[in-house]
Prior knowledge:
three-stranded antiparallel beta sheet
Amino acid sequence: MNEFYVYILLRPWNGVPCYIGKGTRGRCFVHQKMGEKHPNLRLRRIIAKASEPLPVVKVAEGLTEDQAFILEKALIKQYGRKTLANSTDGGEGFTGGRHTAESKARIGKAHSILKLGHEVSEETRKKIGDANRGRVRSDEQKEKISQSIKESEKAKAHIKQLADDMRGKHLSDEHKEKLRQANLGSRRSPEARAAMSEAQRRRVHGPISDEVYAKRQEYWATHSRSEESKERTRQAIKLHWEKRRAKARAA
């Protein structure tokens, strides 16, 4: 259906075009309604400077979308981006567009709001889930996502909160058994083991408070290890010394 049109917004004080666009229905009047909230900084300034609504001239009507794109692009090229507030060269897509520092900040803020506690409806969650279900990401994409999550302020705050919640907390035997079962058969890579070892070496062990010392004394006074746990400890110590002796012989 040929329902598209191409329009020009004029500066009311001198009649010079300030914006060229294409749209349907009342698209040409949306800019004025947005006013100081308009995402286009240059056009926002022009709207603020004008003491009246920007004059609108419809150059052509009854066009197909492709025809509107072609005419929009031709007019932007004719008047030039230095005269116009258009952030792109026109036509389909975002060709030639550049975000200003302010627009980048707004986009970043919007993303942070979505990540940090923004309420998403169940319908939206379902749409997102359906769109991503069965999607296969490359190793490079997975690494980028992982790195982004690790560096996010939300992840850092979450890790700190977990550490604060666990500090001084004693796990029940049932919880310990669940953790043990979950980790049975898992093998850490040499890189992971080296990183853990390095972290322990750098860890600073300071004096503990009387309160913490009393809690530890109380815990160990009532704590009893199972025979299975004792046997695992004996085997671990035995393996440790076997490795040290083998290393000494090899040297």
